[in-house]
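**Folding the chain**
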Amino acid sequence: RNAAEFSHREKDDMEVSVVSLSCADEGCDMTQDSCVCEFTPLPNWEYAMHIPRSSTNVAIVVSPTCAKFGEGCTLHAQELYHFFHTLYPRADITYNVITSTSSWYMRMITADVLVCPPGEGCLLPAIARDAYTYIYEKTSPTVSTWLTCTPDNYLTRMTVPTYPPVFVQGDCR
């Protein structure tokens, strides 16, 4: 029944989930030979907690600075790609390094679900969205971005789960 349901879906019926990987500080210049990116991935199960099984498209979008300077960023994106293929067998899974900031932001803003590990790249698109936005924020030893200074009416439109994530009984769906 589910296969028949997915096979005739129109473009308007698509449910797109996006995982955006970026550096903690996006101040690196692509012309540099080296830069400290401080990429911090989440455990794979944490992404799966937020991406619904009904997703028809799951996109992993990576900032160019994360791909070039983020230690483990590309490896984590590839690992996620294979993990999502197993977890969402009927979904179209994609992995792209998006070089255009406007394209990268548009992918995040128009997604049905957005999941972002700690980093600056997701903050502006997250604030522009209405719902189903999960932003992880490093708070120890200090807050790493300006997310905590965001007005409450914007914060109510997104979920800021506890970081680092801890798996507890009952988390499996």
Summary: Residues 38 and 172 are 29 Å apart (CA to CA).
